[in-house]
Amino acid sequence: MIEPKPLVYVVDDDQSTRETLSSLIRSVGLQVQLFVSAEDFQRCILPDADACVVLDIRLRGMSGLDFQRKLADSGISIPIIFITGHGDVRMSVRAMKAGAIEFLTKPFRDQDLLDAIHIALAKDRERRHRCAEVARLQARFAALTPRQRQVLPLVVTGLPNKQIAAELGITESATKVHRSQLMRKMRADSLPDLVRMAEKLGISSGDNSNH
């Protein structure tokens, strides 16, 4: 499957700034979408592609910092690069603490912005790959029977079949069958492989419920 092209969103209420940034970002082969406000951006449907936002901190309507918080509250994890003509230390600290990739004060060097964009897109690519992997693992976990879901956290703690059987009140031979079936369904090649999968799913040794 062909990966969609990375996309850079520019949110700035100054038209000349939008146009300047657009031509700079396009010059390195990236796609750009321009918005005049945070509210304008919120109406956009985000495609399934690596993306980041170049966001002016002082916008008409919702400010860049408020928009950063709103995105986080909505569970939208898109990397943000702030640009501003009136930055202060307090603003930059707040932005960076909330997860911004970079805080650039105008006038900034073109290369500094392009470097920040490439870092942001690489971070978003990693995040999307992690999310896709977790989604695949969740689908495999959903295919397990309730009993196999009970066996899994006990297996990943390294308990032998005999102890797992005693813990669940089943026979050792039944435990072996459940263990081999869950390994096959999770597509785990080894116990360490299964442990890594369980960690990514957030399954701990105490999680041996039927859910």
Strand order of the largest sheet: 2-1-3-4-5
Under the CATH scheme, which class of the largest domain?
Alpha Beta
Please count the beta strands (DSSP E, at least 2 residues each): 5
Second rung of CATH, namely the architecture of the largest domain: 3-Layer(aba) Sandwich
- Give the CA-CA distance, first to last residue: 34 Å
The CATH topology of the largest domain turns out to be Rossmann fold
Structural account:
It is built from 9 helices and 5 strands. By secondary structure, the protein is α/β, with parallel strands linked by helices. The protein has 2 domains: 7-130, Rossmann fold, CATH 3.40.50; 143-201, Winged helix-like DNA-binding domain superfamily/Winged helix DNA-binding domain (Arc Repressor Mutant, subunit A), CATH 1.10.10.10. Strands 2-1-3-4-5 form a 5-stranded parallel β-sheet, with helices on both faces. Helix 6 (146-156) packs across helix 8 (172-186), helix 6 crosses helix 9 and helix 7 (161-168) packs across helix 8. The mean pLDDT is 89.
Give the gist of this structure.
The chain has 211 residues and is α/β, with parallel strands linked by helices. It is 54% helix and 12% strand.
Write the layout of secondary structure elements.
Elements lengths: L6 E5 L3 H12 L4 E5 L2 H5 L8 E6 L7 H10 L6 E5 L4 H9 L4 E4 L4 H33 L3 H11 L4 H8 L3 H15 L4 H11 L10
Parallel strand pairs: 1-2, 1-3, 3-4, 4-5
Helix pairs in contact: 6-8, 6-9, 7-8
